[in-house]
Fold this sequence. Notes:
Elements: H1 3-10, H2 12-19, E1 39-40, H3 46-58, E2 63-75, E3 77-88, E4 91-101, E5 107-114
Antiparallel strand pairs: 1-2, 2-3, 3-4, 4-5
Amino acid sequence: MNAFVLAAFLCPALALSAQSPAQPSGAPGGDSILVGDYRPTPVDQPQVVEAKGFLQQKLPNLTLLDVTRAYTQVVAGLNVKLVARVLDEEGTMDWEFVAYQSLDGKWHLTSANRI
């Protein structure tokens, strides 16, 4: 008899736990994080600093004053989402940027939205 079938017969709970994928642990604040979601990232992490430098170079009409929040998402490369205080011709406001770093290390601007 197949060992899995025998285990399912003798201990159904063991068989169910063997088939169920591990559930993600809860994030701070009670939110669960799913694989592939953006994850909060310290604003001084090297990829965040590098993404900020790329964005400043890519968008010379904007001055990124400070990054208030950062998130990363591992894809076929890395998405870095930044929420930053920005100075432009209209004054200071919050923006959300997404920069993508491809596997070859090149940065690309995915989105830039005033929030």
